[in-house]
Amino acid sequence: MELIHGTQASNFAPQDFISNMPDKVVTNILDRLPLPHAMRTSVLSRKWRFKWTMLSQLVFYDSYFWNLRKDENRLRVISRLLLHLRGPITKFVLYIDDGLNVEDLNHWTMFLSRKGIKDLTIGKRNKPLVKLPTHLFTCLELKHLKLSNWCIQLPTTFHGFPNLLSLELLQVNFESGKFEEFITLCPVLEILKMSDLRSKVKPDDFAKLANLKTLSLTTTPFSDIDEPITITSSNAIFELLGFLPKLQELQLSFPRCKVTLS
To answer: Locate the F-box domain: which residues (predicted)?
Structure first.
């Protein structure tokens, strides 16, 4: 009877569901938390000490670095964190200005390309524009890309982003004549948003974007672009629409630009 009683007691013993959740569930929970909070889950229990290394999404805003000690190097913190993650990294967002080392960023993008990165944002608020790290062009699984304040020079080994669905460019400059080449190497692109682009754009640059559904071309009132966009023909807009049979949303905003219709 004692044996039976003991067996019955063990069957009704409380189970630790939190510590025994499947890895996919844990990763889903961690990815929904702000990065500092996700890392603090290491104090929940012994089993959760290294659960944060299962993160698949990393979002670094300036506020993330506010709580660092003054002697802690921001770039070194990011490098250490990346090396501890043990699974795929699907999303990486970085907005940082002070002490940005492009070589470090180059190493990070190479690491992310090996981790299957699909959603990448690299924001640089301070000027001048700096050359975008070349290893970014090896992230061939990218589906979403957002860049701000960069100078883009296409490497000769770049043959396109075959999976890219959305692209946002803010204050980005392409080397002469390379914007059209770049955009045609994104064959399945559906969303394109460009603001204060520092490269000349012609309607026929979009001719091969047959899948494009959303197009936004804007400049801000305080933009310091040297040469304003000039529309020389009333047919230019209709010509643009003719290139994009699947277009559902079009936004054009040029508050400081000259418009000459003939």
So the answer is: 15-68
Which one, of 2, 58, 69, 5, lies nearest residue 34 by Cα? 58
Q: What's 197-250 look like in SS3?
A: CCCCCCHHHHCCCCCCCEEEEECCCCCCCCCCCCECCCCHHHHHHHHCCCCCEE
Q: Is 18 within the bounds of a domain?
A: no
> Looking at the domain assignment, is residue 4 inside a domain?
no
Quote the strand ranges of the chain, DSSP E.
57-60, 91-95, 119-123, 130-131, 144-152, 166-174, 191-195, 214-218, 249-253
- Cα–Cα distance for residue pair 55/57, rounded to 1 Å: 6
pLDDT higher than 80, residue 132: yes
- CA–CA separation, 134 and 166 (whole Å): 20
We report the CATH number of the domain holding residue 226 as 3.80.10
Q: Which of 171, 122, 116 is nearest to 145 (CA)?
A: 122
Query: Has residue 105 got a pLDDT over 60?
Result: yes
Question: Is residue 9 in some structural domain?
Answer: no
Domain range holding 85?
A: 56-253
Distance of CA 26 to the CA centre of its chain: 23
Q: What is the distance, to the nearest Å, from the Cα of residue 171 to the centroid of all Cα atoms in its chain? A: 15
Q: Please tell me the distance from the alpha carbon of residue 189 to that of residue 206, in angstroms, as a whole number.
A: 11
Query: Does some domain include residue 180?
Result: yes
| Predicted local distance difference test score (pLDDT) of residue 228 | 41
Q: Encoding tokens for residue 234?
A: 């009333």
In whole numbers, what is the pLDDT of the chain averaged over residues?
80
Say what the pTM is: 0.81
Please count the structural domains in the chain: 1
